[in-house]
Amino acid sequence: MSRQANRGTESKKMSSELFTLTYGALVTQLCKDYENDEDVNKQLDKMGYNIGVRLIEDFLARSNVGRCHDFRETADVIAKVAFKMYLGITPSITNWSPAGDEFSLILENNPLVDFVELPDNHSSLIYSNLLCGVLRGALEMIRKLRYAANA
Amino acid sequence: MWRTCIRDPIPRSQSSELFTLTYGALVTQLCKDYENDEDVNKQLDKMGYNIGVRLIEDFLARSNVGRCHDFRETADVIAKVAFKMYLGITPSITNWSPAGDEFSLILENNPLVDFVELPDNHSSLIYSNLLCGVLRGALEMVQMAVEAKFVQDTLKGDGVTEIRMRFIRRIEDNLPAGEE
Question: Where is it mostly found (chain B) (predicted)?
Answer without folding.
Answer: endoplasmic reticulum
